[in-house]
Specification:
Layout: H1 5-14, E1 22-25, H2 28-38, E2 41-45, E3 58-61, H3 66-74, E4 77-78, E5 81-82, E6 86-90, E7 94-105, E8 110-116, H4 123-129, E9 134-138, H5 147-157, H6 162-178, E10 181-192, E11 197-199, E12 203-206, H7 215-224, H8 230-237, E13 241-244, E14 249-253, H9 256-268, E15 275-278, H10 285-296, E16 303-310, H11 315-325, E17 333-339, H12 342-349, E18 355-357, H13 360-371
Helix pairs in contact: 2-3, 5-6, 9-13, 10-11, 11-12
Protein backbone atom coordinates (compact mmCIF):
# COMPACT_ATOMS: atom_id res chain seq x y z
CA UNK A 1 0.00 0.00 0.00
CA UNK A 2 1.41 3.36 -1.09
CA UNK A 3 0.72 6.67 0.60
CA UNK A 4 0.63 10.08 -1.04
CA UNK A 5 3.48 12.42 -0.25
CA UNK A 6 1.24 14.71 1.81
CA UNK A 7 -0.05 11.73 3.83
CA UNK A 8 3.50 10.52 4.43
CA UNK A 9 4.50 14.00 5.59
CA UNK A 10 1.59 14.16 8.00
CA UNK A 11 2.99 10.96 9.55
CA UNK A 12 6.51 12.41 9.52
CA UNK A 13 5.23 15.45 11.40
CA UNK A 14 3.55 13.23 14.01
CA UNK A 15 6.87 11.42 14.57
CA UNK A 16 8.96 14.58 14.88
CA UNK A 17 10.59 14.61 11.44
CA UNK A 18 10.93 18.21 10.16
CA UNK A 19 8.94 18.99 6.97
CA UNK A 20 8.35 22.21 5.02
CA UNK A 21 5.26 24.31 5.62
CA UNK A 22 2.66 23.03 3.15
CA UNK A 23 -1.00 23.17 2.16
CA UNK A 24 -2.91 20.39 0.38
CA UNK A 25 -5.22 21.69 -2.37
CA UNK A 26 -7.90 20.15 -4.58
CA UNK A 27 -8.66 23.09 -6.89
CA UNK A 28 -6.73 25.64 -8.96
CA UNK A 29 -8.09 28.49 -6.84
CA UNK A 30 -7.01 26.81 -3.60
CA UNK A 31 -3.51 26.27 -5.00
CA UNK A 32 -3.25 29.88 -6.12
CA UNK A 33 -4.32 31.14 -2.70
CA UNK A 34 -1.83 28.79 -1.01
CA UNK A 35 1.06 30.13 -3.10
CA UNK A 36 0.07 33.70 -2.26
CA UNK A 37 -0.11 32.76 1.42
CA UNK A 38 3.38 31.20 1.34
CA UNK A 39 4.75 33.97 -0.97
CA UNK A 40 7.17 31.66 -2.83
CA UNK A 41 6.28 28.00 -3.21
CA UNK A 42 6.55 24.73 -5.11
CA UNK A 43 3.41 23.03 -6.44
CA UNK A 44 3.68 19.23 -6.38
CA UNK A 45 1.26 16.79 -8.01
CA UNK A 46 -0.03 14.11 -5.63
CA UNK A 47 -0.16 10.81 -7.52
CA UNK A 48 0.76 7.32 -6.32
CA UNK A 49 3.54 6.80 -8.88
CA UNK A 50 7.11 7.99 -9.28
CA UNK A 51 8.46 10.25 -11.99
CA UNK A 52 6.35 13.31 -11.14
CA UNK A 53 9.22 15.71 -11.70
CA UNK A 54 10.11 14.34 -15.13
CA UNK A 55 6.42 14.54 -16.11
CA UNK A 56 6.23 18.22 -15.18
CA UNK A 57 4.30 17.59 -11.98
CA UNK A 58 6.63 19.55 -9.66
CA UNK A 59 7.09 23.24 -10.50
CA UNK A 60 8.07 26.43 -8.69
CA UNK A 61 5.41 29.11 -8.56
CA UNK A 62 5.25 32.78 -7.69
CA UNK A 63 2.29 34.90 -6.72
CA UNK A 64 2.07 36.12 -10.32
CA UNK A 65 1.99 32.74 -12.10
CA UNK A 66 0.48 30.55 -9.36
CA UNK A 67 -2.87 30.00 -11.07
CA UNK A 68 -1.37 29.11 -14.46
CA UNK A 69 1.16 26.70 -12.91
CA UNK A 70 -1.61 25.09 -10.83
CA UNK A 71 -3.86 24.77 -13.91
CA UNK A 72 -1.02 23.07 -15.81
CA UNK A 73 -0.38 20.52 -13.05
CA UNK A 74 -4.07 19.79 -12.46
CA UNK A 75 -4.35 19.12 -16.19
CA UNK A 76 -1.67 16.43 -16.16
CA UNK A 77 -2.13 12.68 -16.34
CA UNK A 78 1.00 10.99 -14.96
CA UNK A 79 1.39 7.33 -15.89
CA UNK A 80 -2.35 7.10 -16.60
CA UNK A 81 -3.27 8.69 -13.25
CA UNK A 82 -4.99 12.11 -13.31
CA UNK A 83 -3.83 14.74 -10.84
CA UNK A 84 -6.65 15.42 -8.36
CA UNK A 85 -4.64 16.98 -5.53
CA UNK A 86 -1.52 19.12 -5.24
CA UNK A 87 0.73 19.93 -2.31
CA UNK A 88 1.83 23.57 -2.19
CA UNK A 89 5.01 23.91 -0.12
CA UNK A 90 7.07 26.89 0.95
CA UNK A 91 10.29 27.17 -1.05
CA UNK A 92 13.52 26.20 0.71
CA UNK A 93 16.99 27.72 0.36
CA UNK A 94 18.90 24.46 -0.12
CA UNK A 95 22.60 23.96 0.58
CA UNK A 96 22.82 20.17 0.04
CA UNK A 97 20.55 17.25 -0.88
CA UNK A 98 20.76 13.68 0.43
CA UNK A 99 18.95 10.35 0.18
CA UNK A 100 17.86 8.46 3.32
CA UNK A 101 15.62 5.41 3.47
CA UNK A 102 14.77 2.32 5.46
CA UNK A 103 13.67 -0.51 3.20
CA UNK A 104 12.84 -4.17 3.63
CA UNK A 105 15.78 -6.23 2.39
CA UNK A 106 14.06 -9.38 1.17
CA UNK A 107 17.36 -11.28 0.83
CA UNK A 108 17.94 -11.12 4.60
CA UNK A 109 14.39 -10.51 5.85
CA UNK A 110 15.68 -7.49 7.78
CA UNK A 111 15.26 -3.74 7.47
CA UNK A 112 18.10 -1.96 5.70
CA UNK A 113 19.25 1.62 6.23
CA UNK A 114 20.34 3.24 2.97
CA UNK A 115 21.91 6.69 2.58
CA UNK A 116 23.56 8.60 -0.24
CA UNK A 117 25.04 12.06 -0.65
CA UNK A 118 23.46 12.05 -4.14
CA UNK A 119 19.90 12.94 -3.17
CA UNK A 120 17.16 14.51 -5.23
CA UNK A 121 17.65 12.19 -8.21
CA UNK A 122 16.46 8.73 -9.22
CA UNK A 123 18.15 6.44 -6.68
CA UNK A 124 17.85 3.46 -9.04
CA UNK A 125 19.94 5.36 -11.59
CA UNK A 126 22.54 6.15 -8.91
CA UNK A 127 22.63 2.47 -7.93
CA UNK A 128 23.15 1.49 -11.57
CA UNK A 129 25.79 4.05 -12.54
CA UNK A 130 27.51 4.86 -9.23
CA UNK A 131 26.79 2.12 -6.66
CA UNK A 132 29.73 3.28 -4.52
CA UNK A 133 27.75 6.43 -3.70
CA UNK A 134 25.12 4.40 -1.78
CA UNK A 135 25.89 3.16 1.71
CA UNK A 136 23.82 0.30 3.17
CA UNK A 137 23.64 -1.17 6.65
CA UNK A 138 21.40 -4.06 7.73
CA UNK A 139 19.37 -3.50 10.92
CA UNK A 140 18.89 -6.35 13.38
CA UNK A 141 15.15 -6.24 14.23
CA UNK A 142 15.92 -7.42 17.77
CA UNK A 143 18.59 -4.77 18.40
CA UNK A 144 17.29 -1.87 16.31
CA UNK A 145 19.50 0.93 15.06
CA UNK A 146 22.96 0.99 16.64
CA UNK A 147 24.88 4.16 17.54
CA UNK A 148 27.88 3.19 15.42
CA UNK A 149 25.61 2.81 12.36
CA UNK A 150 24.22 6.32 12.86
CA UNK A 151 27.70 7.79 13.30
CA UNK A 152 28.94 6.05 10.17
CA UNK A 153 25.98 7.27 8.11
CA UNK A 154 26.51 10.86 9.27
CA UNK A 155 30.15 10.59 8.21
CA UNK A 156 29.20 9.16 4.81
CA UNK A 157 26.77 12.04 4.22
CA UNK A 158 29.17 14.66 5.52
CA UNK A 159 26.57 16.08 7.93
CA UNK A 160 28.08 17.77 11.00
CA UNK A 161 24.90 17.85 13.09
CA UNK A 162 25.06 14.19 14.10
CA UNK A 163 22.46 14.62 16.84
CA UNK A 164 19.79 15.98 14.48
CA UNK A 165 20.48 13.35 11.81
CA UNK A 166 20.49 10.50 14.34
CA UNK A 167 17.17 11.64 15.78
CA UNK A 168 15.65 11.85 12.31
CA UNK A 169 16.81 8.35 11.32
CA UNK A 170 15.59 6.90 14.63
CA UNK A 171 12.18 8.47 14.04
CA UNK A 172 12.20 7.08 10.51
CA UNK A 173 12.85 3.60 11.87
CA UNK A 174 10.12 4.07 14.47
CA UNK A 175 7.65 4.74 11.63
CA UNK A 176 8.94 1.70 9.74
CA UNK A 177 8.39 -0.61 12.72
CA UNK A 178 5.15 0.85 14.06
CA UNK A 179 3.28 1.00 10.75
CA UNK A 180 4.55 -2.32 9.29
CA UNK A 181 6.29 -0.58 6.41
CA UNK A 182 8.29 -2.04 3.55
CA UNK A 183 9.73 1.38 2.68
CA UNK A 184 10.17 4.74 4.39
CA UNK A 185 12.10 7.10 2.14
CA UNK A 186 13.21 10.74 2.06
CA UNK A 187 14.51 11.90 -1.31
CA UNK A 188 15.73 14.50 -0.95
CA UNK A 189 16.57 15.13 2.66
CA UNK A 190 17.94 18.66 2.52
CA UNK A 191 20.33 20.76 4.55
CA UNK A 192 19.08 24.34 4.27
CA UNK A 193 21.37 27.33 4.02
CA UNK A 194 20.50 28.24 7.61
CA UNK A 195 21.59 24.77 8.82
CA UNK A 196 18.27 22.94 9.25
CA UNK A 197 17.71 19.31 8.18
CA UNK A 198 14.30 18.95 6.48
CA UNK A 199 12.47 16.13 4.65
CA UNK A 200 11.66 17.79 1.33
CA UNK A 201 9.95 14.65 0.01
CA UNK A 202 8.40 11.63 1.69
CA UNK A 203 7.42 8.15 0.61
CA UNK A 204 5.86 5.42 2.75
CA UNK A 205 4.85 1.95 1.56
CA UNK A 206 3.00 -0.34 3.98
CA UNK A 207 2.85 -4.13 3.86
CA UNK A 208 -0.61 -5.08 2.56
CA UNK A 209 -0.54 -8.23 4.68
CA UNK A 210 -0.35 -6.11 7.85
CA UNK A 211 -3.28 -3.84 7.07
CA UNK A 212 -5.59 -5.92 9.27
CA UNK A 213 -3.82 -4.47 12.33
CA UNK A 214 -3.26 -0.96 10.96
CA UNK A 215 -6.70 0.57 11.42
CA UNK A 216 -5.66 4.12 10.51
CA UNK A 217 -3.93 2.88 7.36
CA UNK A 218 -7.05 0.94 6.35
CA UNK A 219 -8.92 4.25 6.26
CA UNK A 220 -6.19 5.80 4.10
CA UNK A 221 -6.31 2.83 1.73
CA UNK A 222 -10.05 3.31 1.22
CA UNK A 223 -9.52 7.06 0.83
CA UNK A 224 -6.81 6.51 -1.81
CA UNK A 225 -8.67 4.02 -4.00
CA UNK A 226 -9.80 6.69 -6.47
CA UNK A 227 -6.13 7.60 -6.94
CA UNK A 228 -4.99 4.06 -7.78
CA UNK A 229 -4.77 2.34 -11.15
CA UNK A 230 -8.36 1.02 -11.71
CA UNK A 231 -7.30 -2.49 -12.76
CA UNK A 232 -5.26 -2.88 -9.56
CA UNK A 233 -8.25 -1.83 -7.46
CA UNK A 234 -10.56 -4.30 -9.25
CA UNK A 235 -8.09 -7.15 -8.76
CA UNK A 236 -7.43 -6.25 -5.12
CA UNK A 237 -11.14 -6.42 -4.30
CA UNK A 238 -11.11 -10.02 -5.57
CA UNK A 239 -7.94 -10.85 -3.60
CA UNK A 240 -5.85 -11.04 -6.77
CA UNK A 241 -2.62 -9.23 -7.61
CA UNK A 242 -2.42 -7.03 -10.71
CA UNK A 243 0.37 -4.67 -11.79
CA UNK A 244 0.12 -2.63 -14.97
CA UNK A 245 3.15 -2.72 -17.30
CA UNK A 246 3.98 -1.14 -20.64
CA UNK A 247 3.92 -4.10 -23.05
CA UNK A 248 1.24 -5.69 -25.25
CA UNK A 249 0.97 -9.33 -24.09
CA UNK A 250 -1.56 -9.68 -21.28
CA UNK A 251 -0.63 -12.36 -18.76
CA UNK A 252 -2.85 -14.37 -16.40
CA UNK A 253 -1.10 -16.86 -14.14
CA UNK A 254 -1.75 -18.57 -10.79
CA UNK A 255 1.20 -18.23 -8.46
CA UNK A 256 3.73 -15.40 -8.27
CA UNK A 257 6.70 -17.64 -9.17
CA UNK A 258 5.03 -18.98 -12.32
CA UNK A 259 3.90 -15.45 -13.17
CA UNK A 260 7.44 -14.06 -12.98
CA UNK A 261 8.78 -17.00 -14.99
CA UNK A 262 6.13 -16.32 -17.64
CA UNK A 263 7.08 -12.63 -17.83
CA UNK A 264 10.75 -13.61 -18.16
CA UNK A 265 9.96 -16.12 -20.92
CA UNK A 266 7.98 -13.50 -22.87
CA UNK A 267 10.89 -11.06 -22.60
CA UNK A 268 13.47 -13.69 -23.58
CA UNK A 269 11.35 -14.54 -26.63
CA UNK A 270 11.40 -10.90 -27.73
CA UNK A 271 8.00 -9.83 -26.42
CA UNK A 272 6.83 -7.33 -23.84
CA UNK A 273 4.36 -8.13 -21.01
CA UNK A 274 1.39 -5.79 -20.55
CA UNK A 275 0.83 -6.73 -16.91
CA UNK A 276 1.42 -9.03 -13.97
CA UNK A 277 -1.77 -10.87 -12.92
CA UNK A 278 -1.71 -13.56 -10.23
CA UNK A 279 -5.16 -15.05 -9.54
CA UNK A 280 -3.61 -16.99 -6.62
CA UNK A 281 -4.28 -20.56 -5.57
CA UNK A 282 -7.82 -21.82 -5.13
CA UNK A 283 -9.42 -19.37 -7.58
CA UNK A 284 -12.76 -20.54 -8.98
CA UNK A 285 -14.31 -19.98 -12.42
CA UNK A 286 -15.65 -16.56 -11.40
CA UNK A 287 -12.23 -15.30 -10.31
CA UNK A 288 -10.53 -16.67 -13.43
CA UNK A 289 -13.17 -15.06 -15.63
CA UNK A 290 -12.77 -11.76 -13.76
CA UNK A 291 -9.00 -11.93 -14.26
CA UNK A 292 -9.53 -12.42 -18.01
CA UNK A 293 -11.89 -9.43 -18.18
CA UNK A 294 -9.60 -7.16 -16.17
CA UNK A 295 -6.49 -8.06 -18.16
CA UNK A 296 -8.17 -7.88 -21.57
CA UNK A 297 -9.61 -4.44 -20.78
CA UNK A 298 -6.11 -2.94 -20.74
CA UNK A 299 -6.02 -0.99 -24.05
CA UNK A 300 -2.38 -1.98 -24.60
CA UNK A 301 -3.13 -5.72 -24.58
CA UNK A 302 -2.99 -7.23 -28.09
CA UNK A 303 -2.74 -10.92 -27.11
CA UNK A 304 -3.83 -12.74 -23.95
CA UNK A 305 -1.51 -15.44 -22.56
CA UNK A 306 -3.07 -17.65 -19.87
CA UNK A 307 -0.53 -19.93 -18.17
CA UNK A 308 -2.24 -21.91 -15.39
CA UNK A 309 -1.28 -24.89 -13.26
CA UNK A 310 -4.10 -26.96 -11.79
CA UNK A 311 -3.31 -27.51 -8.14
CA UNK A 312 -5.55 -25.81 -5.59
CA UNK A 313 -7.21 -24.25 -8.62
CA UNK A 314 -8.63 -27.09 -10.74
CA UNK A 315 -8.13 -27.07 -14.51
CA UNK A 316 -11.83 -27.54 -15.25
CA UNK A 317 -12.66 -24.50 -13.07
CA UNK A 318 -10.00 -22.51 -14.94
CA UNK A 319 -11.31 -23.62 -18.32
CA UNK A 320 -14.90 -22.78 -17.40
CA UNK A 321 -13.92 -19.29 -16.30
CA UNK A 322 -12.07 -18.73 -19.56
CA UNK A 323 -14.87 -20.16 -21.68
CA UNK A 324 -17.47 -17.95 -19.97
CA UNK A 325 -15.61 -14.76 -20.90
CA UNK A 326 -14.39 -15.61 -24.42
CA UNK A 327 -17.43 -14.00 -26.04
CA UNK A 328 -16.37 -10.65 -24.53
CA UNK A 329 -12.90 -10.77 -26.12
CA UNK A 330 -11.78 -9.46 -29.49
CA UNK A 331 -8.10 -10.39 -29.10
CA UNK A 332 -6.38 -13.76 -29.63
CA UNK A 333 -5.90 -16.04 -26.61
CA UNK A 334 -3.06 -18.49 -25.95
CA UNK A 335 -3.58 -21.05 -23.18
CA UNK A 336 -1.21 -23.41 -21.44
CA UNK A 337 -3.22 -25.54 -18.98
CA UNK A 338 -1.82 -28.45 -17.01
CA UNK A 339 -2.37 -30.19 -13.67
CA UNK A 340 -5.36 -31.57 -11.77
CA UNK A 341 -8.38 -32.29 -14.02
CA UNK A 342 -6.49 -31.08 -17.09
CA UNK A 343 -8.36 -33.51 -19.40
CA UNK A 344 -11.69 -32.07 -18.22
CA UNK A 345 -10.32 -28.60 -18.79
CA UNK A 346 -9.23 -29.41 -22.33
CA UNK A 347 -12.67 -30.89 -23.05
CA UNK A 348 -14.37 -27.66 -21.91
CA UNK A 349 -12.14 -25.64 -24.23
CA UNK A 350 -12.81 -27.89 -27.24
CA UNK A 351 -14.05 -25.77 -30.11
CA UNK A 352 -13.27 -22.50 -28.32
CA UNK A 353 -11.39 -19.85 -30.27
CA UNK A 354 -8.10 -20.32 -28.41
CA UNK A 355 -4.59 -21.54 -29.23
CA UNK A 356 -3.38 -24.31 -26.91
CA UNK A 357 0.30 -24.54 -25.92
CA UNK A 358 1.96 -27.39 -24.03
CA UNK A 359 4.73 -25.45 -22.24
CA UNK A 360 5.46 -21.95 -21.00
CA UNK A 361 8.13 -21.41 -23.64
CA UNK A 362 5.77 -22.52 -26.43
CA UNK A 363 2.99 -20.26 -25.11
CA UNK A 364 5.37 -17.29 -24.98
CA UNK A 365 6.65 -17.96 -28.51
CA UNK A 366 3.12 -18.19 -29.96
CA UNK A 367 2.00 -15.01 -28.16
CA UNK A 368 5.02 -13.05 -29.39
CA UNK A 369 4.47 -14.30 -32.96
CA UNK A 370 0.81 -13.23 -32.79
CA UNK A 371 1.78 -9.71 -31.74
CA UNK A 372 4.44 -9.46 -34.43
Amino acid sequence: MKLHEYQSKQIFDQYGIPIPEGIICTTINEAGQAVRQLHSAVIKAQVLVGGRGKAGGILKATQDNASSIAAHIFGLTIKDLPVRKVLVEKSMAIANEYYVAIVLDRSTGCPMLMVSASGGVDIEEVARTSPHLICKRSIDPCMGLMSHQLLYMAKMLGIDDITALSKLIKNLYNIYETLDCTLVEINPLVLTQDGRIIALDAKINIDDNALFRQKAMQKLYIQNQDDLEPHEVQAKKLDMSYVDMEGNIGCIVNGAGLALATLDMISLTGGSPANFMDVRGGADAFHVGSAVSITASNPGTKVLLINMFGGLTLCDEIAQGIRDTLTELDIPVVIRLTGTNQEKGWDILQGANVTVAHSTSEAARIAVEMVQ
